[in-house]
Structure formats: structure tokens, C-alpha cells
Amino acid sequence: MIRLDTLTLHDQPKGAALSQYFDIGDETLWNPSNGASRLFQSQVSVFEAELELSSGIGPMENDECQINPAVFEIFLNALLVQHRGTSHAVLRALSEGFIATVLVLAERAGIRVDWAQSGAAPDGALEGAQTPAVTGMSTLAEGRARGAGLREKARELAQHMPR
Prior knowledge:
This protein is mainly alpha-helical. It is about 50% helix and about 5% strand.
């Protein structure tokens, strides 16, 4: 039996990379370990299926993955709308870490986050705007609180996501 905590670099197969790259063009947004990358890519597939949308996150080839920023922006904003629209605490909890990771990538890519559409705009951002009623959202303040929580989680997570 092999203990994973005792593997060292020399135990890696020859030529095996220890990290992968998520890029837009020549700019690296994130350089996670292989394990974190695999988990993230699996979650991308799950959320693409749930939203019935492409994420814009391409396949991992030679330890590099290109992100299409236009498609990624649509995917991110759809994630936020879905998150706002559910009152199911477990679904929200399961999605928050993934969404925070996506928010970090979006910020690093300079992608616009449509907080108003998701109902999670900062105070004052929705003044004068018509906001549709969304099932599961009791108040605009709750939507803003969720948005603030996601932004805070993304800020904290960004410190642990190497480029």
C-alpha cells in the first residue's frame, strides 16, 4: 500500500507536471496543483451541465488550459443568477467555493461581473432599477449579503491561488 503523504518528487512519473495553467492568451490567471486543477475541472463540468452552458474553459492540453473570456463572462453571470435564485441552503453551500474560484479568475481576467443582474449589487447600485422577483429571494438586502459574502470569499481565496 502506498501512502500518498510519503510520495516525493522523485516518485512522480517522468515528465509529469506538478501544476497546470489556466490562461487567457499569454496571461496566466491561475497555476494550481494537478489535484486542485482536476477537482476544479470536474466542478466546471458539473456546473456546465447544470446551467446547460459552456464555461469557456477549454480542455487541459499539455498542462495548459485556455479560457475564452466572452463565454466565461456569460457562464459566471449565469452562476451568480442561479446562486441568487435558490433558497436551498445545501445547494448554495456546495456552489459557493466554486463560484468564489470563478470570481477570482474573472477578476484576474478583467471580466465584468454583473452584480445587478444577480441581485447582489453593492448598496445603492440598484437604485432606480427594476428588479424582477426571484423565487427564494426574500429581500434585496439578502441578495446583497450573498453577493458580499461571495466577494469576500473570493478575496480570501485569491491569496491562495498562485499565478
